[in-house]
Structure formats: C-alpha cells, structure tokens
Specification:
- By secondary structure, the protein is an all-alpha fold.
- The chain is built from eight helices and two strands.
- Helix content is 56%, strand content 2%.
- Strands 1-2 form a two-stranded antiparallel sheet.
- Helix 3 packs antiparallel against helix 7.
C-alpha cells in the first residue's frame, strides 16, 4: 500500500518521470499559485475517478471501457469545475480552458486504464492520491522557480524587492521548457534513472549491436 502511494511522488512522478500532462504543465506554471490550483483539481479528479472505475471495473464491458472511463472522469471534472467557479473564481480565470481539459489529461486516463481498472478500491485511491501529489509538487516547484526568477515574486508576494532584476524569459514559453528540462534531469538523478543496472542492462556483451558498436570495440563514438 505504501509503495502504491509513494510511487507517484518521485519514482513514477507523472510529470517529471513519465512525462505526462506536459501541456498544462508548461502553460499554467507561470506562477506557483496556478500550480496549486491545477494540482488540487487534478488530484480530486484522480482520486474520485480511480475509486469509481475500480468499483465498476467488473461491470464496464471491455469493448466500451475507454468511453466509459472518459464519461466518469468528465462527470467529476464538471463537479470540480463548478466548485472552482463558485469558490475560487480567480483560479478559474487563470486556469481557463485547462481546467475542463482535465477530462483528457493523459495522467488521469492512464491511471484509470493501467491501475484502477485492475485493482481494488483502496489501492486505486492511494494510487490516485500519490499521482496527484506528485503532479501537484511538480507544478508548484516549476511555477515557483519560474515566478521567482521571472517576476521576483513567490505566491504573489514580492521577494527580491528590486535587488535582483527579474528575467522575464522564465515566465515565457522558452523559460518553461528550460525549467521543465532541468527538473526532469533532477528527478531522474534522484530516482536513480541513470543507473543501467536498475533496468537489467547486461553491458556491451549482451547487446545485439555489439559487433558494429564503436564503444564496444574501444572507440569513442555513439552507440
């Protein structure tokens, strides 16, 4: 149970390790508060849809499972969107079209297909919660970095106070791609993604291309 919950936070972080949901990640992370809003909304939908799909997994026919999953997810997204419009209008205006587009977010549909449809309710809820926390953490971290460097503020509060000139590039798309790439590299390093032994690598001797590979033959070229 604990592993199911913690997997989505770092080792299988949906944004930084699985590289899912990149469109809202790059679009709304110009400020840390945006990341909080999108992350909480997505987490609520993830947990509720995973629970519902797990409960109905033996009832939904195999032939129509994807349309059924999307219908269930769309129902929860509609509820979340109505709550945001009622109680957090500023976040609703900031997130714009990306809030209803949670319906087709690869993270949510992916967890429904790969986990919730094959597991009981409690593990599915924990999986959705872990993935949601991982997604939220990635959004908030990325938004905080871009906001701090690009505007000199953090959660709307001025931090640099004119001592450092903000680099507006970081709140523009190029800055978003740069920060995203750096965070992916950091997540890979922390989770041991660069360790070949983790993936069962047998080295050059076990590679079918060893005979034509310059590295296997003592050269310095690429494999």
């Amino acid at each position: 149970m604990i592993k199911t919950f913690t997997n989505g936070i770092l080792r299988e972080n949906p944004t930084l390790r699985l590289v899912l949901g990149t469109c809202p990640t790059l679009a709304i992370t110009t400020a840390a508060l945006n990341g909080v809003g999108m992350g909480i909304a997505a987490t609520l939908v993830l947990v509720c849809s995973n629970a519902a799909i797990s409960l109905l997994r033996k009832v939904i026919p195999e032939q129509v499972r994807i349309p059924a999953y999307i219908t269930i997810i769309a129902g929860f997204v509609t509820v979340v969107q109505m709550l945001v419009k009622a109680y957090a209008q500023s976040i609703d205006e900031t997130l714009g079209i990306y809030l209803p587009l949670i319906v087709v977010n690869c993270i949510i549909l992916g967890r429904a297909e790969m986990f919730a449809s094959k597991n009981p309710v409690l593990p599915s809820v924990l999986d959705g919660l872990g993935m949601g926390i991982g997604f939220t953490a990635a959004l908030v971290t990325m938004g905080a970095i871009r906001e701090l460097i690009g505007a000199g503020t953090l959660f709307g509060i001025t931090v640099t106070a004119g001592s450092i000139e903000p680099m507006v590039l970081f709140i523009l798309p190029p800055g978003g791609f740069f920060v995203f790439g750096m965070l992916i590299a950091l997540a890979n390093k922390l989770s041991g993604g660069g360790n070949k032994k983790e993936f069962g690598c047998m080295g050059c001797a076990g590679c079918p291309s060893a005979k034509t590979c310059s590295e296997a033959n003592g050269g310095g070229g690429n494999e």
